[in-house]
Amino acid sequence: MKSMIKKITTTALFGVLAVSAFAGCGGASSSSNGSSDAGSDAAKFDASKTISVVTREEGSGTRDAFTELTGVLVKDGDNKTDNTTTSAVTINSTEAVITNVKDNEAAIGYISLGSLNDTVKALKIGGVEATADNVKSGDYAVSRPFNIAYKGELSDVAQDFVDYIMSSDGQKIVSDNGYVTVSENAAYSGKKPSGKISVAGSSSVSPVMEKLAEAYQKVNTNAKVEIQTSDSSAGMQSAMGGTCDIGMASRDLKDEEKSALKVETIAKDGIAVIVNNANTCDDLTLDQVKSIYTGETTVWSDIIK
């Protein structure tokens, strides 16, 4: 009887060790009887699938920042080459990227950290989680500024809105929505002038800008803020052309944009690399991300060992 108890205990111990061996990108967990856990998404993931690479459209500030930070974009003097694989699926909004990855187990994409929700999984990069604290500390490598830009002097009401964004009230909204603050200014104390403000550009900046506009219009009921969402390049073109008061960009401004516009950073944001919740991978290096996005690595089993 004692021999039988000892045998059962030893078997149970091996079962625990077997489960722990499959942590991270190592594979799906198993139950103690050796069968797959049918209720677990991770247990169902097929690592032999071809990686479905999802990217943003040209002109997207998120794409510009992501490709530069991961090395997918190669610079040679003034020349820049985006080496994103031609097989990538190009998506023109943050929400559409999330939907695509949520609906495709083999997909990988990237989005603004502030837009992340639990329908997809954010990967660690080099062992560092994609969080606002890690962006602020500089530990998370894939991060970029949220910029606004405008041509010449702003109207009284547009300047008052910018003052609100950079006040402690505005920066609290930035923080509350998962982004990193950049200002330690005092509370808003503007004169609340009347008028209309037009803001245009980045679909990554738009979500927090909408929250800022909503809050500002509550404290200044004389103002109306209209937001048009497109991409960073379109936002800068609109600002330079005078078709909007304030342009939004989720990247650093290009030289020609800097020469024509005044720029101000209103927040910092991480770029979350996301996969389907069923994917067993939890962590990638920057080199692995680059390899996937340039088309060098094409199958999940090359990553998930």
Give the name of the CATH architecture of the largest domain: Roll
What is the alpha-carbon Rg in Å?
23 Å
Count of distinct structural domains: 3
Low-confidence segments, ≥5 residues, pLDDT <50? 1-24, 26-40
Gross morphology is: globular
Question: What is the residue-averaged pLDDT?
Answer: 88
- Biggest sheet descriptor: 9 strands, mixed
Distance between the termini: 40 Å
- How many β strands by DSSP? 13
| The top level CATH class name of the largest domain | Alpha Beta
Strand content: 15-25%
Describe the protein.
This protein has 305 residues and is α/β, with parallel strands linked by helices. The protein has three domains: 2-44; 52-142 and 271-302, D-Maltodextrin-Binding Protein, domain 2 (3-Layer(aba) Sandwich), CATH 3.40.190; 145-269, Roll (Dipeptide-binding Protein, domain 3). Helices cover 35% and strands 23% of the residues. Strands 1, 4, 5, 6, 8, 9, 10, 11 and 12 form a nine-stranded mixed sheet that branches. A two-stranded antiparallel ribbon has the order 2-3. A two-stranded parallel sheet has the order 7-13. Strand 2 (73-76) and strand 3 (79-82) form a beta hairpin. The protein is globular.
List the helices and strands and how they pair.
Layout: H1 2-20, H2 41-44, E1 52-56, H3 61-70, E2 73-76, E3 79-82, E4 89-91, H4 94-103, E5 107-112, E6 121-122, E7 124-125, H5 132-137, E8 143-150, H6 156-166, H7 168-176, E9 195-202, H8 206-219, E10 223-230, H9 232-241, E11 246-249, H10 255-260, E12 262-275, E13 283-284, H11 286-293
Parallel strand pairs: 1-4, 1-5, 7-13, 9-10, 9-11
Antiparallel strand pairs: 2-3, 5-12, 6-12, 8-11, 8-12
